[in-house]
Write a structure and sequence with these properties.
alpha/beta, Rossmann fold, five-stranded parallel β-sheet, 13 helices
């Protein structure tokens, strides 16, 4: 049975008028035009999960919104929905600098920790919460690491196709420089150049590409990428997301991309990249509220790790590190469902950001009954 969530919006939740006023009454309706045009009976909502440390509340707000949007799309449109979370285990875990050239090298969480540890981190940070949100909304979910995704033939076919179109795509995905670096980790140690300065694309075709790269410890090495090869594929954030979305479009379910609103500018470039493919149409996108620090900057793991995202006095510490929540995970899931349901009750409440102080006010003065003191 779905969790009971409040319909009325508290009178003191005040948001500016949205540009979509009168056109959109629920944020799930952004999906409707493509659903009608494509005549699909299944939706797959795609969202990313960074496997690089404990999540903060902003991450969980986006994930909760994804579940509630999938629930709303199912109920409003009468279609089957599923959530597909991409576990981004390709995030840098270690970095090194070449003493001679100053070139930065990095090793991903996958290469540093291995698949078993990545699986454990994913379950620890998200397993219980996702299970609770799925039970409350009736929406099934799947989690797939980037490592597993990039090893699939469909992803590799789309990656190879992007290399064929590289001259067109590079000025869309990197309009300031036209530089679209590639990264193929050393097959012996898993380290690769962060910015791909020494990686050279030798040939590119729809069935095979060949490149040459440089390892700090093992020197120059060559890689051959085919739909069946085992070469680990690395690329820039926008390039990688383009390939992932192109691969998702080949599924029988209509892909819907769910991202925080801070992604809006990047998705503008992704949409233009889609138009470099003959007859291609970008997927429908829904942007979720961004949780902001006191300075107005997005609450982010990097700022937290750098000590630049301190909470104001009186705000529960679990907002920066949700593992500090002391109550049952079901209680935390219920808090998130109640909070995000309020945001979704009117598009003007969903199409905005919330500071941690405002979030705490909406939750309650104690920040939630299970919060750490």
């Amino acid at each position: 049975m779905n969790a009971v969530r409040p319909d009325p919006v508290p009178p003191d939740l005040v948001s500016p008028v949205s540009v979509t006023v009168t056109a959109v009454t629920h944020s799930a309706d952004f999906i409707r035009p493509r659903l009608r045009a494509d005549r699909r009976d299944r939706l797959a909502l795609h969202a990313g999960v960074q496997i690089n440390g404990a999540p903060h509340v902003g991450t969980n707000v986006m994930q909760t919104a994804a579940f509630l949007l999938a629930e709303a799309a199912r109920d409003r449109f009468g279609v089957e929905t599923v959530l597909r979370f991409g576990a981004l285990d390709n995030t840098a875990c270690d970095t090194r600098t070449c003493a001679r050239t100053g070139t930065l090298y990095e090793r991903s969480y996958h290469h540093a920790l291995g698949p078993e540890a990545i699986g454990e981190l994913t379950r620890r940070y998200y397993g219980g919460l996702f299970d609770s949100l799925s039970a409350a909304t009736g929406v099934p979910y799947e989690v797939q690491t980037y490592t597993a995704q990039q090893s699939g033939s469909v992803f590799r076919e789309e990656f190879l196709r992007s290399l064929v179109l590289r001259d067109e795509l590079r000025w869309v995905l990197a309009p300031s420089s036209g530089r679209l670096p590639l990264s193929f980790p050393c097959p012996e140690c898993g380290w690769s150049q962060k910015h791909g300065e020494g990686t050279e694309l030798l040939e590119a075709g729809t069935r095979q590409a060949r490149a040459r790269a440089v390892c700090l410890d093992h020197g120059t090495y060559a890689v051959d990428v085919t739909p069946e090869s085992q070469v680990y594929i690395g690329s820039t954030t926008l390039h990688r997301n383009l390939v992932k979305e192109r691969a998702a479009a080949r599924d029988d379910a209509l892909p819907v991309i769910v991202k925080g609103a801070d992604w809006a500018a990047g998705c503008r470039l992704l949409d233009e990249a889609f138009w470099c493919y003959a007859g291609a149409t970008p997927p429908p996108r829904v942007f979720t509220p961004v949780i902001l620090s006191e300075s107005g900057a997005k609450l982010s793991k990097s700022l937290i790790q750098e000590g630049k995202a301190d909470l104001p006095a009186g705000i529960a510490p679990w907002m920066l590190d949700v593992t500090l929540w002391e109550g049952p995970v079901e209680e935390y899931a219920h808090l998130l469902l109640r909070l995000v349901s309020l945001m979704l009750s009117d598009p003007r409440h969903f199409e905005r950001g919330y500071t941690t102080r405002e979030l705490a006010r909406l939750i309650g003065s104690d920040g939630g009954s299970g919060a750490a003191a």
